[in-house]
Amino acid sequence: MPAEHALLVVMATFEPLDLQQWPRREWFEHYLDRCPTYYSMTVDLDITNLRAAVDASGRKTYPTQIWALATVVNRHPEFRMALDDQGNPGVWDVVDPAFTVFNPDRETFAGISARYTPDFDAFHSEAAELLSEYRNASTLFPQGAPRPRNVFDISSIPWTRFTGFTLTIAPGWAHLAPIFTIGKFYEQEGRTMMPLALQIHHAAADGYHSTRLVEELRQIIADPDWVNC
């Protein structure tokens, strides 16, 4: 990686929640223990402006999508939640995107992660290099195991458009981080659209929080001046 794009390696900090003062404690405990619940949402995003900006800049689409998702996720503590080793909830000060890279020869994918930074140029450089480095990976986690704990997942299914996508997560596995799945672009009335599926643990976030995240994502991709910065 060029020196000017090198990222400062800083360990993420996990801050336990004060349950006595936390407004969502009752909802958290209900959906974590008494009625464990995940929910899925699939939305269509207008990426016309973003796609044009990416094409004009010579950037790569997938790292750009990843950065946009990571940026809105990191704005909100409910999407940076996790449990510590004792099962107590807390919030990471920053979460990094973990994402898939497909190996067409093996018809398998690898899961890799990149450190998030609000500097799009720096992030794009690192993510693009990682995608190139691990595109022929033959293992699930080629960067080594265990994965960093402060990650959330993004995957891409660029071969098909979908109107619904749901992951089945085993009961009892309290995966509080959001999971995103990107679908194939399609054209609609002169606009380029992209399906995006969200898998959310109800203990961490309600429909209000997920809708806010989606609307902020719509805003950031509708005004993609940051692509050329």
UniProtKB/TrEMBL annotation:
GO biological process assignments: response to antibiotic
Enzyme Commission code: 2.3.1.28
Keywords recorded for this protein, A-Z: Acyltransferase, Antibiotic resistance, Transferase
Xref: Pfam families: CAT
SUPFAM superfamilies referenced in this protein's UniProt entry, alphabetically: CoA-dependent acyltransferases
Signal sequence bounds: none
Residues annotated as transmembrane: none
Reaction equations catalysed: chloramphenicol + acetyl-CoA = chloramphenicol 3-acetate + CoA
Top enzyme category: transferase
GO molecular function: chloramphenicol O-acetyltransferase activity
Function, in words: This enzyme is an effector of chloramphenicol resistance in bacteria.
Family, similarity comment: Belongs to the chloramphenicol acetyltransferase family.
Name of protein: Chloramphenicol acetyltransferase
Organism: Mycobacteroides abscessus
Lineage per the UniProt record: Bacteria, Bacillati, Actinomycetota, Actinomycetes, Mycobacteriales
